[in-house]
Amino acid sequence: MSDPTAILLVDDEEEFVSTLAERLEIRGFESKAAYSGDQALSLIENNDYDVVVLDVKMPGMDGLEVMDQIKARRPEMPVILLTGHGSTKEGMEGMQKGAFDYLMKPLDIDELISKVQEALGGRPESG
Amino acid sequence: MNPETEKTLTFFGKMTANLTHEVKNVLAIIQESAGLMEDITAICPLAEEKYQEKFNHSMATIKQQLHRGIDLTTQFNRFAHTPDRSSAELDLVDTVGQFCLLTGRFARLKHISLTAGDPDPANEKIRLTTNPVQFYMALFFSLESCLSALTSNTEIRVIPQKRGGQSPAIEFACTGEQIPPAGEFFQQLQAAEAWGELGDVIDPLAGKVECDTNDLRFWLIF
To answer: In a 10 Å sphere around its CB, with 0-12 CB exposed, 13-18 middle and 19+ buried, how is residue A85 labelled?
Structure first.
């Protein structure tokens, strides 16, 4: 039996990201919530994640800056961006900088899971 | 539009866009929390079936209203960015859909239905480069004029199209069992304060208004 897919969720909206993490756990994923870019980078330094789901708009280091640093350390790690705006501009900019894809908040959990699967090249999403 | 007015609009646009972003965050938290409650009861249903049914019904209502709220805030966020540019290319099908969603309540208060009509599929992409704020104002004054000339149980359809196959245009078509005679309708329409304001905003947009006095409809042509 393979290990469950490990997802790091990064968003400064703590209630949102911790609840999303719980819902992913129910679906068999191993998920960890981080509430800032610094916390996310420190977790990535010490743990293995299969995918990072990252909010673009965060206080301090914004999502695109965090992604640049993730890519510098772990270029192979897929990053899915979350944008909160009606516009797709930031998501497109993120993809040009190396994000796998982007989703708009509020999001559909099934859509997130299928995006995670896509990022992993169709690998089964959970253990 | 003078620079002071533009500054004021940009300020209100920024504040409103920021607020809609916050509201979307709130909706995202409610959505995930409702989803988690649903996940938990799927694993461990409530002991009595009738309560589970009530729970499911309430959850369906929450989800339906969440989608409504998300749709409204998404469109309103886009609207709030309207003053960002004094000239922009608008997709008129998209703009009319957004306009009807955001202003539907004005019509509902008078028991009038407001819908975005389907454009002719042959020219689905109808684009216009214009001042987005003033264009919205032209749509809004047209709607207000219609509302002042109609009674309840009528319908206003807003249809983007290319007039004569060339000029981008928006048709306002009024229908329904209780519509007034055409002469009375146009008299009321043209007496409305909003109709005068429509004239003021459509001129700088190099647009014009054309009426079909037999059929209770008029066009904004650009």
So the answer is: buried
Distance from C-alpha of B211 to C-alpha of B199, rounded to nearest angstrom: 13
Same domain assignment for residues B21 and B62: yes
CA B16 to chain A, closest CA, distance in angstroms equals: 12
The tally of domains found in chain B comes to 2
CATH of domain A6-119: 3.40.50.2300
B74 and B138 assigned to the same domain? no
> Are B99 and B191 members of one domain?
yes
Q: pLDDT digit of tens for each residue in chain A (127 aa)?
A: 578 999 999 999 999 999 999 999 999 999 999 999 999 999 999 999 999 999 998 998 999 999 999 999 999 999 999 987 555 788 889 999 999 999 998 889 999 999 999 999 865 545 4
pLDDT in tens, B60-95: 999 999 999 999 998 898 888 888 888 999 999 999
What's the predicted TM-score (pTM) here?
0.79
* Identity of the residue in B39, B75, B78 whose CB atom sits nearest the CB atom of A26: B39
Which of B83, B111, B144 is a domain's end point? Answer: B83
Classify the complex by whether its ipTM is higher than 0.95, answering yes or no: no
Residue-number span of the structural domain to which B170 is assigned:
85-221
Residues B127 and B187 grouped into a single domain = yes
CB contact under 8 A, B35 and A23: yes
At CB < 8 A and 24+ separation, what contacts does B194-200 make? B194/B140, B194/B141, B194/B142, B194/B144, B194/B145, B194/B148, B195/B141, B195/B145, B197/B137, B197/B141, B198/B138, B198/B141, B198/B142, B198/B145
What is the count of residue pairs from A and B with beta carbons less than 8 Å apart?
A: 53
